[in-house]
Amino acid sequence: MRELPLYSGCFVCGQENRIGLKARFFWDGEKAVCDIVAEEAFAGYKNILHGGIVATLLDEIMIKALLAEDILAVTAEITIRLKNPVYTGDNLHLEGWKTDQAGNVFHTRGRAVNQSGEIVAEATAKYVKPKEELSGRLSRSRQ
After folding, report:
1. Of the candidates 58, 67, 73, the residue with the CA atom closest to the CA atom of residue 109
2. ∠ CA 86-42-5 to the nearest 5 degrees?
3. Pairing state of beta strands 105-113 and 91-102?
4. How far is residue 71's CA from residue 50's CA, in Å, rounded to a whole number?
């Protein structure tokens, strides 16, 4: 597995973002993967990870699947299904992969699984290639 590129200031993967998740993402040849512990600092209710953090992790795992294939894109639409609570201290395994492409539109799927093997959340998303000006800005910010 190879580690996927990051932007040092990113809330999700940035290792220099002092308030971020500091998640590390890898490519197994077919999908992006990430293992992370749900921290209390990101709780929505006591001892339960905020659903927005789960959604953010799923967005990131799916776009990392595109970046692994050298596809620079931005989120256009995302649907999250929160199926079970994620408790702080849980070990989460995330997977994301590209399912389809139609021109400059990319479709993806993702899921988050806890240490018991329960799917706690699933997602689908649509990403698009950015316009030229934004594409240049995004390319300069990547490491």
Report:
1. 58
2. 95
3. antiparallel
4. 29
DSSP class per residue in 19-72? TS-----EE-SSSEEEEEE--GGGEEETTEE-HHHHHHHHHHHHHHHHHTTT--
Instruction: State CA 13 to chain mean position distance.
Output: 9
Total Cβ atoms within 10 A of residue 46: 7
- pLDDT, one tens digit for every residue, the chain (143 residues): 999 988 888 999 999 999 999 999 999 999 999 999 999 999 999 999 999 999 999 999 999 999 999 999 999 999 999 999 999 999 999 999 999 999 999 999 999 999 999 999 999 999 999 877 666 556 655 54
How is the chain split into domains, by residue range? 2-141
Fold designation for 2-141: Thiol Ester Dehydrase; Chain A (3.10.129)
Cα–Cα distance, 12 to 23 (Å, whole number):
6
Phi, psi values for residue 101, rounded to 5°: -140, 135
Cα distance between residue 82 and residue 57, in whole Å: 12
